[in-house]
Amino acid sequence: MELDIEIEEPWPAAGWEALVMRVADAAAKVAPELGHTRLTASALFTSDAEVHALNREWRGRDKPTNVLSFPMLEREDLLELAQDGPPEMPPVFLGDIALAHETCAREAAEKGVSIEDHAAHLVLHGLLHLAGFDHEISTEEAEKMEALEVKALAQLGIADPYEGSSA
């Protein structure tokens, strides 16, 4: 997958691109459909105010959140692509994710983890949403998505974010 990564204030400038690439590689190991060479996606590291505006405009929720994902493919189309055609064919846009700095930093502090580890979890969460996984559908789907997250994060040396929680 090719990723277009944009870092805006208030995120510090260094290291986020490499983090996103490591997370995308780990995501492709647990959800191989994300490893297709024709896929492209974007990741925006921005402010709570920007994510709040996006959440209000596109989801009708008038509040900030930690990560938003905007899938451009249905899961069935992504799975078909994963089995389809040589990589020389044109790129296929998977979607966008956006992370809110202040919410991410606050949640990381509350959980007692680094902002880098929490951002990695949120990027992974967003990528899995782009791949068609959705924890809001059912408990079974939530457990499936969480298991993929835990497995991918372990590959990155990041502890299970759900351990000891009922989330």
From TrEMBL:
InterPro entries: MetalPrtase_cat_dom_sf_prd (IPR023091), YbeY (IPR002036), YbeY_CS (IPR020549). Zn(2+) binds at residues 125, 129, 135. One of its GO terms (biological process) is rRNA processing. Its EC number is 3.1.-.-. The keyword Flavoprotein does not apply. Keywords: Cytoplasm, Endonuclease, Hydrolase, Metal-binding, Nuclease, Ribosome biogenesis, rRNA processing, Zinc. It comes from the Bacteria. Binds 1 zinc ion. One of its GO terms (cellular component) is cytoplasm. SUPFAM superfamilies: Metalloproteases ('zincins'), catalytic domain. GO terms for molecular function: metalloendopeptidase activity; RNA endonuclease activity; zinc ion binding. It is found in: Cytoplasm. The keyword Cytoplasm applies. Its cofactor is Zn(2+). Single strand-specific metallo-endoribonuclease involved in late-stage 70S ribosome quality control and in maturation of the 3' terminus of the 16S rRNA. Belongs to the endoribonuclease YbeY family. This is Endoribonuclease YbeY. It comes from Alteraurantiacibacter aquimixticola.
